[in-house]
Amino acid sequence: MAEELLILLKGTDCNKGAVAMLKTHLLDYFECTINSRSDSIAVRHNDNEISFSELKQQSQKVGSLLMEITGAAVNTPIAVFLPKEINAVIADIGIMYSSNPFMNLDVKTPHERIMNIFDLVKPAAVITSRKFSKILSDVDVPVIIIDEIDWNSIIVDESTLLSRRRMLIDTDPFCLINTSGSTGTPKGVVLNHRSFFDFMSVSNDRFDFDGSEVLGSLSPIVFDIFDFELCMLMCNGSQIVLLDAMLAAFPARLLEKLVDYRVNFIFWVPSIMVNIANMGLLDKIALPDLRLVWFAGEVFPTKQFLVWYDKLPDTVFANLYGPIEITLDCTYYVVEERPNESEPLPIGIPYHNTDVLLLNDENEKCKIGEEGELCVRGTSLAMGYYNNPEKTAAAFTQNPLNNSYPEMIYRTGDMAYMREDGNIMFKGRKDSLIKHMGYRIELGEIEHVIENELKLVEYCCAVYQYEKKEIILYYQNNSELTEKDFRTALSKVFPAYMIPSVYIKMDELPRNTNGKIDRLTLKNKANNPEE
Amino acid sequence: MNSDILSMLEEIKPEFDFNDSEDFVMDGLLDSFDIITLISMLEEKYSITIDGLDIVPENFSSLDSIANLVVKSGGKA
Fold it and tell me: pTM score, two decimals?
């Protein structure tokens, strides 16, 4: 027994100091990291770079400025409306210093959608740059223009920053991430500090992170992957190389950047990796520094995955799975043997301290091989959707296996089953949520906006063509509409990735026996055109 | 060839005026998804295979540069 206990305790930081100095905020980790890394480069972006100590100084100044502007506000979201650049990193960490959660927004989001988000979340302030401030001219919250800050004039009062932070607890919000809802206004997922510590501690243990990582950051700042990269920087002292979104269109350039900056770790969505494989670029550009590749967000077709696996024999690959609501990812599969081309990659096993429940329609635990909804239990769960109790209550529910005390689970809406060997296999969605170019899209939102807000057509149904990766809109309407009519109207309300690629008019949309539009028939029609 | 390429671009992004742009890439008219779509259209129309190393911003900045890329890849008008 004593021996078992010893084994259990091994690897746990048991010294008294660690217990006394409980870390409750990501900045507690960042400030430890700074001690050993102060002159190292924290972030690089094209020809610009910033060291850890400079990053701390400037972030503290942003934090002080925010404290001045927003007064007593703590745990109140502060928006960031910046492109992916070093200033965005300073803004996020600056917001943490003000003891508030950050909410990164995409500068390409149409104005109307930004306004919807502001109306719902009511951030205490927004940080932007001169170039993008024009778009925010009609928001009624204080605007900080980061490239006009007179850095020398700001005096940092470290003890006030710290005493405010000491009032927070580890389940206070770290960030808000907006994700497609069904009504035209995104849902703001609230993620706490604790959930990120848990993810980092398990990742560090499993993948031996030690601060020598150089991350090739390709995700937009609105993705949770970017928040993970920030945590790698803050907790481990890893370096982030910011890669411009435009590079995703030009994979050869992208790979050249990885070589130039000696990137050794990437965490990407599969679509770009599929393009790289299809273009045969791994034959032409060697990536000798790349040690670790994580991918998540959508299914990586095994055929293209094998191109990567075969060309980079010394690189470790891991398939991660998890919706935003459970903080980054909750299962992982490290590819240790060559997968069979005809089989999908497993999503793997749960992260330590995360429990995955597969529940069938009767809310009972599925047997091996039985398909059910993937539900998650643990400290990784989000706190809910900001100012949205209805949506929160629908997705975060009492664990049906526990009738004795309150215990939340998150119902992902994803269908999965467990294989004999304990690995979980992803099967698809219960509803009409899709992953497209790494973004999560509720097809119902596209339909709702087209029918009810823009009133473009009488009825419509959006389905996803998985092979071509395009959204198809079937619609029923008396008058003719051109593709241009649709695109012009939709580009004012939706980001580009939510705009359907194909528009098909039907005399009448198929209906099921209840009179509802028969989504399944249309989905089959789009995915099996010859039938 | 330029007019054929223009109609392909207009098919991909009917809401944009490509004649108005000095540089399609810098002006943000084409995202990664559009580039992939355009490449497959060009490869089909001109029976060519475009080398992955040639898929760089300079080759997609204007109608002329796209046409040059097609010719370089063995395409004939």
Answer: 0.89
